[in-house]
Amino acid sequence: MERFTASKYRGLTTFDLKILGIILMFIDHIHQMFVPMGAPNWLDWFGRPVATLFFFVSVVGFSHTRSKEKYMLRLYLGMIIMTFGSFFLQKFVGYEEVQLMNNIFRDLFVGTLMMYGIDQLSEGASSKKIGKIVWGLVLILFPIVTSVILISLMSNPSTMFAAVWIGNFIPALLFTENNFLVLLIPLMYLAKNHRWIQCLLIGLAAVFFFSQGSTQWMMIFAILPIALFNGEKGKGMRNFFYFFYPLHIWILYLISAYIYTH
């Protein structure tokens, strides 16, 4: 029998992590879309590590991209297209049994905004430029401050409608799909050169969710593929991932609506 050696196993690339995330996400969304037909709850478990995997991939991607501004712009446009695409699809179909609240682009954009703020803060500290330090702090705190402002506006009936629409365009931490969990992105970015710290952060978050009785603790299973990441990009197909996310959700939604109403 041929002996297994470390040199023969090359680990997982960024592409591999994305494919794994997509497969798990697809299973999770089958549960989401077909709950009215009795889809078993255990299908939801497959999706618990997905956000963590994509958060890690975004940290790697943001660290190595040639243009961080363009990287952020793509995520922002994805966030807007996903928001309004889901809104108008639901209005057109009128299938209220399933609500399209998915928008991982919003989570990733908020995370990249905070990572960009960390870069500005670091550069300002190194060059002793107060302006950059202040700008970095503004970017880091912006998603938190906007969350507080939007929640305050939504608590007032006269400003609630305007706040909801403004929230579609503004990155607000508490209005992301994964809420406070998005903070893992800037935290993992700070530890980008220390994989064990990144895995420890994921483990601590998992322990917190376990203590709350949430199945989100299963995010801990993202640690294994992340630990096996070899630092390589692998295959490209960047645009595939940007298109696949909204399209598979919308297609599953339409299939679910058709089956439920026929």
UniProtKB/TrEMBL annotation:
- Which InterPro entries has this protein been placed in? TraX
Q: What is the top-level taxon of the source organism?
A: Bacteria
Membrane-spanning residues? 20-39, 45-63, 75-92, 104-121, 133-154, 160-187, 199-228, 240-260
* Pfam families per record: TraX
Keywords on record: Membrane, Transmembrane, Transmembrane helix
Give the protein's recorded name: Membrane protein
**Species:** Enterococcus wangshanyuanii
